[in-house]
Amino acid sequence: MTSAAPPATSGACATDPFTTLRPRLFGIAYRMLGVRADAEDVLQDAWLRWSRTDPAALQSAEAWLVTVVTRLSIDRLRALKAEREAYVGWWLPEPLVELDGAHTPESAAELAGELSVAFLYVLERLGPEERAAFLLRQVFDYDYPEIAAQLGKTEASCRQMVHRASERVQQARTRFEVPRNVHHQLLQRFMLAARSGDRNAIETLLSEDAQLIGDGGGKVPSFAQPLVGPFRIANLYWALFRRLGAQVVYRMALINGEPGLLRYLDGQLESAQAFVTDGERIVAIYAIRNPDKLAGIPLSLD
User: Fold this and answer.
1) Exposure string for 174-191, b = 16+ CB within 10 A, e = fewer
2) What is the pLDDT of residue 114?
3) Per residue in 182-230, pLDDT tens?
4) Residue 65 belongs to a domain
5) Helices (H) then strands (E): counts for the chain
6) CA angle 190, 35, 41 (to 5 degrees)
7) CATH number of the domain within which 99 lies
8) Which of 18-27, 98-107, 113-122, 231-240 is predicted least confidently?
């Protein structure tokens, strides 16, 4: 028998703590796991436990729910370790995509913080508990006593985990503070160049050390190593245009809260592409091509 699903946010049950906190709980689970279905499974399990609990007996419903979701996410991430180690090629998160100004529960304020594909890609370098401690502190701003209670660790241990994780994240990633409108304008220029097959224009929009990382998951062809350099990346977009011409269509979208592109080939979604920019050039492109990770996006232009 299929169990009931956890409630989505609505006016009818807005006073229920689980419903009120659902965007935050999803934000924690998704950032931990990088896959919408896995995050939703965690919320389902958490809600089942919540439905058997007396809220009046809890000192803090938020602390209880965040603890349950965090620990369930850690357990699931551990279970997924072997699967991800055997993953074919580079593993990128399943993108959260918004089209035409549409808003979903996942695009609520709790997801407006650090959520980019580049950030989640770097988080894959962290162990499950280290990742949880880092996220609870740096993204969700919980104090160390709260994190210690949520993870069942000492405050000193949590401080060490957050410190180690912060160093590893900083080493693996250069962060640029770029206004949304600047990012959007640069991406529009890139899209125009890509859809017209202007190889030189594409090349000038890329930094000297730009790289493209593709995730095909063994389901579709992708590069075994990052594609590095403006010439090689520009040549890739030019070659696709030369081969398919007007069959290649790009569409602007918000991907994990930042301007990105959806690429359609012959009317069918082929990839979701997230971009990192320093404000003047594009420094990284993350192309998610695994069909399993594109299932939540409109697959057709119709």
Assistant:
1) eeeebeeeebeebbeebb
2) 83
3) 999 999 999 999 999 999 999 999 999 999 999 999 999 888 899 999 9
4) yes
5) 10, 7
6) 155
7) 1.20.140
8) 98-107
* Amino acid symbol at 36: R
- DSSP 8-class letter at 113: S
Structural domain harbouring 263? 180-293
State the average pLDDT for the chain.
90
If one counts every other C-beta atom within 10 angstroms of the C-beta of residue 73, the result is: 28
Token reading at 178: 């770029």
Q: Which amino acid, residue 72?
A: L
Alpha-carbon distance 29 to 75, whole Å? 11
Residue with token string 């299932």: 295
Same domain, 214 and 273: yes
What does the alpha-carbon distance between residue 104 and residue 96 come to, in Å, rounded to a whole number? 10
DSSP string, 286-297: EEE--GGGSTTS
pTM score: 0.89
Q: Are 189 and 234 in contact (CB under 8 A)?
A: no
Number of other residues whose CB lies within 10 A of the CB of residue 157: 16
Q: How far apart are CA 21 and CA 1, in angstroms?
A: 27
- How far is the C-alpha of 199 from the C-alpha of 241, rounded, in Å? 10
Locate 62 and state its tokens. Answer: 């938020």
CA distances 227 to 54, 105, 214, 215, 287, Å, are: 54, 35, 9, 12, 11
